[in-house]
Amino acid sequence: MGVHKLEIELSDELMQAVDRLSIERRSSPSDVVVATLADHLPSAKQQAEPTIAQRLAALERINKMVDALGSNRSEEDIDRQVREFRADRTYD
User: How many Å is the Cα radius of gyration of the chain?
Assistant: First the structure.
């Protein structure tokens, strides 16, 4: 894992908040920004690919939704089903 530089622009208010925290924590403004980002960005674990079990459960939910529509589906029913399918990508 490398270290990278990032140049950003902050408003006066944000910079003042960073300065206050860096004084309180006795650390550099850069360290405050990095720590804040680390605390608020999703971790690699949260971004991991869904498990096979999660994918199978999602597929089962999709199959149930399709079965519930029956064979004589209208174009509106099909479009609604596609929208529901696209919205269900969380694998929860």
Answer: 23
Structure tokens belonging to residue 81: 């089903």
The pTM of the full predicted model, rounded to 2 decimals, is 0.46
Dump pLDDT digits (tens) for 54-91: 889 888 888 887 777 777 778 887 788 778 777 766 55
Q: Nearest 5°: CA angle at 23, between 22 and 24?
A: 90
HEC string for the chain:
CCCCCCCCCCCHHHHHHHHHHHHHHCCCHHHHHHHHHHHHCCCCCCCCCCCHHHHHHHHHHHHHHHHHHCCCCCHHHHHHHHHHHHHCCCCC
